[in-house]
């Protein structure tokens, strides 16, 4: 299957540059999928989601917290300002795998000055990433003070104070910090919406997947089968595994909130025991049309970028033709797209 099969035209003004005025008020497109038929679509608001879920649903959220991973250094020789995205820590607490702007110009041996007198040196390369060694360990405390929220490039502005709260889910755990992009489907939920879901008989559980290159790196191959996902770390609590396994036994629907929750659940499914495994691991799973889902029965997610692995994933669930119809309707009705945009519920 070709990557350009997943292309679509999107007017630039539909790319959300800011979140909705109030969390939970974004529009929600509910699509009921029947193979061989056009999807049945309903238009509502995220805060009304409980009215559209199957009774007794188990909803799985990703509680990873976004790291303030964008940090600016000054080239010690030229004085130029360089932006780095700290993607992943290495075993050495002073060294990170990082993306750099104008990457080809950032060569091994180049030294940079960072806030609070910290110095950093490029000591090598790791595939698409630079190995950036600092003069001291870089902690989340340091990044919280000196880093920036890693807004995606299609948000064409600098980060602002509102992003520190709105680009985090309300349930993100401080001890689960590690994502370099938000699990954006979860940005819509408020404590009140979560309480309403529970009050109406739904169950909520959490997994953790730290969003990295595997989630947002673009597909650069003509054939999607040739694309290779970067691995990302995840963990599943024993309680969540028990809830998923019980729901499967009882035939209750499992709704994944966001593509990262899907990839975590599908990666941890044991086909031998027909059970979800708890614990920590990492995944490079790539889900595209032809994949057979083992765990989930529905998806709550945002609208994704053209030719992305995320669009391929939802196409695997709903079918590419159905997704094209849903997206065409969303464009026609001027839904807002991407991280700060509106949402859809696929059932």
UniProtKB/TrEMBL annotation:
GO terms for biological process: tRNA queuosine(34) biosynthetic process. Its main location: cytoplasm. GO terms for cellular component: cytoplasm. Pathway: tRNA modification; tRNA-queuosine biosynthesis. It catalyses: 7-aminomethyl-7-carbaguanosine(34) in tRNA + S-adenosyl-L-methionine = epoxyqueuosine(34) in tRNA + adenine + L-methionine + 2 H(+). GO terms for molecular function: S-adenosylmethionine:tRNA ribosyltransferase-isomerase activity. Its EC number is 2.4.99.17. Keywords: Cytoplasm, Queuosine biosynthesis, S-adenosyl-L-methionine, Transferase. Transmembrane segments: none annotated. Gene3D superfamilies: QueA-like. It is found in: Cytoplasm. InterPro entries: QueA, QueA_dom1, QueA_dom2, QueA_sf. Monomer. Belongs to the QueA family. Transfers and isomerizes the ribose moiety from AdoMet to the 7-aminomethyl group of 7-deazaguanine (preQ1-tRNA) to give epoxyqueuosine (oQ-tRNA). This is S-adenosylmethionine:tRNA ribosyltransferase-isomerase. It comes from Spirochaeta lutea. The gene is queA.
